[in-house]
């Protein structure tokens, strides 16, 4: 635990930042008073006094989509198969890998991933949690044992948690029976209702924790099951994979006569509670409808590139007023700036232009995308409006102004330089719910968590 964290555990603490991206714009010499995990006062053009002195501050981003356990298989599916590779061949590798994982391994892997998320600028994670059962497909003594372990990892690392238990019942459209590789995911409606209730019990004492639900995808849930489980969300978020792969679109057309996003919009009240993960293969009409719905598009550019998914029509979606958040999904590489960079670069490559996603002439690409991901990510994870303002969660990062990529920069140019020219080291401190969890770019529990992770991986891969 850092000295700054120790100094602020009792009562309020005050930090002074050279500058800060507040909800209403950049300000200089900003004093933030933190108490109860929230920002209780903001003073600008203020002397530092005896406050903790920090560099420029940005709101931390919400990681809208993570499968924690996949962090441990990063890099293990990069050898070409005999007949080529795609998402579906990668999925078979993933199914084989998860057969080795028990609760202890999942907790250790989740903690390692969350450390990297915090160090990389994410202050909250949406855990799209579908690894529920033991390797035989049977229930643990506590049917929510794996969710317990995800929450325990978040408690140790200090990351904000939105727990999204996943309903998964079928292998494909039409209620196809699950495959053997999916046996650890499967619930019926009643069992899933019990799981959701247990998840709420698990996080009941965790400050700022949120529980939503995640019907896995239209191929894994029937229309009747979707109708039955949606009330379980209450006012919480609803996340769903949709239209990630062209095969999924083709299968949905064959089964229903409609494309996935169109079917969902026609049959379900998609609104601000919803986050549609990927939505990669949507046409112009679906892009417009999704933007108007108020839902968030949960984009995972690094994973989508790694899996060969395709490119979301981000330019057209943002032009239509759509909200978006960013996620690390398979956790092949965990860094907030990398997701922002990959989002923009995909558009540059497909459109053969630069600064495609900037909000207008003379607008900062990095700045506009950071703001958009902050607002959309907070909405998607049920964490309010996001941003640095009075009453908001004290979730923020500060930058090292002496980092070679950041020297002499200010305002949105700092964000542009972090995103497009910086590497690890640009982020100095990270604060989650008013607690300093990263100092000098390093999480306070990194050494202990990394040691456990190394031991776990050596055993798994032996």
Automatic annotation (TrEMBL):
<dbReference type="InterPro" id="IPR010252">
    <property type="entry name" value="HutF"/>
</dbReference>
<dbReference type="InterPro" id="IPR011059">
    <property type="entry name" value="Metal-dep_hydrolase_composite"/>
</dbReference>
<feature type="domain" description="Formimidoylglutamate deiminase N-terminal">
    <location>
        <begin position="13"/>
        <end position="49"/>
    </location>
</feature>
<feature type="domain" description="Amidohydrolase-related">
    <location>
        <begin position="58"/>
        <end position="437"/>
    </location>
</feature>
<dbReference type="InterPro" id="IPR055156">
    <property type="entry name" value="HutF-like_N"/>
</dbReference>
<keyword id="KW-0378">Hydrolase</keyword>
<dbReference type="Pfam" id="PF01979">
    <property type="entry name" value="Amidohydro_1"/>
</dbReference>
<dbReference type="GO" id="GO:0046872">
    <property type="term" value="F:metal ion binding"/>
</dbReference>
<dbReference type="GO" id="GO:0005829">
    <property type="term" value="C:cytosol"/>
</dbReference>
<dbReference type="Pfam" id="PF22429">
    <property type="entry name" value="HutF_N"/>
</dbReference>
<keyword id="KW-0479">Metal-binding</keyword>
<dbReference type="InterPro" id="IPR006680">
    <property type="entry name" value="Amidohydro-rel"/>
</dbReference>
<dbReference type="GO" id="GO:0019239">
    <property type="term" value="F:deaminase activity"/>
</dbReference>
<dbReference type="InterPro" id="IPR051607">
    <property type="entry name" value="Metallo-dep_hydrolases"/>
</dbReference>
<dbReference type="InterPro" id="IPR032466">
    <property type="entry name" value="Metal_Hydrolase"/>
</dbReference>
<protein>
    <submittedName>
        <fullName>N-formimino-L-glutamate deiminase</fullName>
    </submittedName>
</protein>
<keyword id="KW-0862">Zinc</keyword>
């Amino acid at each position: 635990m850092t000295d700054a964290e120790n100094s602020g555990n009792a009562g309020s603490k005050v930090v002074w930042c050279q500058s800060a991206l507040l909800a209403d714009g950049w300000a200089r010499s900003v004093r933030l008073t933190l108490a109860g995990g929230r920002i209780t006062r903001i003073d600008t053009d203020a002397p530092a006094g005896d406050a903790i002195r920090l560099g420029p501050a940005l709101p931390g981003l919400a990681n809208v989509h993570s499968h924690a356990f996949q962090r441990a298989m990063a890099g293990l599916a990069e050898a070409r198969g005999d007949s080529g590779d795609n998402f579906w061949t990668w999925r078979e590798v993933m199914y084989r890998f998860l057969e080795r994982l028990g609760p202890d391994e999942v907790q250790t892997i989740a903690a390692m991933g969350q450390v990297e998320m915090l160090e990389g600028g994410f202050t909250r994670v949406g855990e799209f949690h579908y690894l529920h059962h033991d390797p035989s497909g049977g229930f643990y003594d506590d049917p929510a044992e794996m969710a317990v372990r995800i929450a325990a990892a978040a408690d140790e690392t200090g990351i904000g948690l939105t727990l999204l238990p996943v309903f998964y019942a079928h292998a494909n459209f039409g209620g196809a029976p699950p495959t053997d590789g999916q046996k650890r995911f499967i619930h019926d409606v009643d069992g899933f209702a019990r799981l959701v209730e247990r998840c709420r019990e698990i996080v009941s004492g965790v400050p700022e924790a949120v529980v939503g639900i995640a019907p896995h995808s239209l191929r894994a849930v029937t229309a009747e099951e979707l109708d039955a489980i949606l009330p379980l969300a209450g006012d919480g978020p609803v996340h769903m994979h949709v239209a990630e792969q062209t095969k999924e679109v083709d299968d949905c057309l064959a089964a229903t006569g409609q494309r996935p996003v169109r079917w969902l919009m026609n049959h379900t009240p998609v609104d601000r509670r919803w986050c549609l993960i990927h939505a990669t293969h949507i046409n112009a009409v679906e892009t417009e409808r999704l933007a108007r719905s108020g839902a968030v598009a949960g984009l995972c550019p690094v994973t989508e590139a790694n899996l060969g998914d395709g490119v979301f029509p981000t330019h057209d979606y943002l032009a239509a007023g759509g909200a978006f958040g960013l996620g690390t999904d398979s956790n092949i590489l965990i860094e907030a700036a990398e997701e922002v960079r990959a989002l923009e670069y995909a558009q540059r490559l497909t459109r053969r232009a630069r600064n495609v996603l900037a909000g207008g002439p003379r607008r900062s690409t990095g700045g506009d995308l950071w703001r958009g991901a902050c607002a959309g990510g907070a909405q998607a994870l049920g964490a309010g409006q996001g941003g640095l303002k009075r009453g908001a969660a004290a979730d923020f990062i500060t930058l090292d102004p002496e980092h070679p990529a950041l020297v002499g920069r200010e305002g949105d140019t700092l964000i542009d330089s972090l995103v497009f020219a910086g590497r690890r080291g640009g982020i100095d401190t990270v604060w989650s719910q008013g607690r300093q969890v990263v100092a000098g770019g390093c999480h306070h529990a990194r050494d202990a968590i990394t040691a456990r992770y190394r031991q776990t991986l050596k055993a798994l891969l032996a």
